[in-house]
């Protein structure tokens, strides 16, 4: 029996990509200040909570409700910071906590990003 160039032998070693976890973005719909948002990204690799200006408007808040901050993040100077009550879960089973948000003045597909 001869082996041709088309005959292959399975390579038993693991491929490099098999050592890396597969992760998917987690998008939740928490209630922030009694408004249910359907596009909130959970970013486990970040320590910042970011709220975008469009969401601030939907909450009935303005830039005057923000506390001034001097610290930029990723080259972005936030409009300010605000602490809001956030509820995760349903009316039957939920967790509520106050969260600090930096407010950014640019558009994204999300209302907020939670770090």
Give a short summary of the structure:
This protein is mainly β. It contains 1 helix and 8 strands. The chain starts with 25 loop residues before the first strand and ends with a strand.
Describe the protein.
There is one protein chain. With 115 residues, this protein is mainly β. The chain has one helix and eight strands, in the order βββββαβββ. The protein has an eight-stranded mixed beta sheet with strand order 1-4-8-5-7-6-2-3. The mean pLDDT is 83.
Q: Which CATH architecture is right?
A: Beta Barrel
The third-level CATH topology is Cathepsin D, subunit A, domain 1
Spatial strand order of the main sheet: 1-4-8-5-7-6-2-3
Figure out the total of helices.
1
Strand content: 25-35%
Terminal CA distance reads 61 Å
Determine and state the CATH class.
Mainly Beta
SS class: mainly beta
Mean pLDDT: 83
Please compute the radius of gyration using only Cα atoms.
22 Å
Main sheet summary: 8 strands, mixed
CATH superfamily grouping: Acid Proteases
**Which percent range fits the helix content?**
under 10%
Number of strands: 8
- The low-pLDDT segments are none
Characteristic terms for this protein:
Cathepsin D, subunit A, domain 1; 32% strand; 5% helix; 115 residues; 8 strands; 8-stranded mixed β-sheet; mainly beta
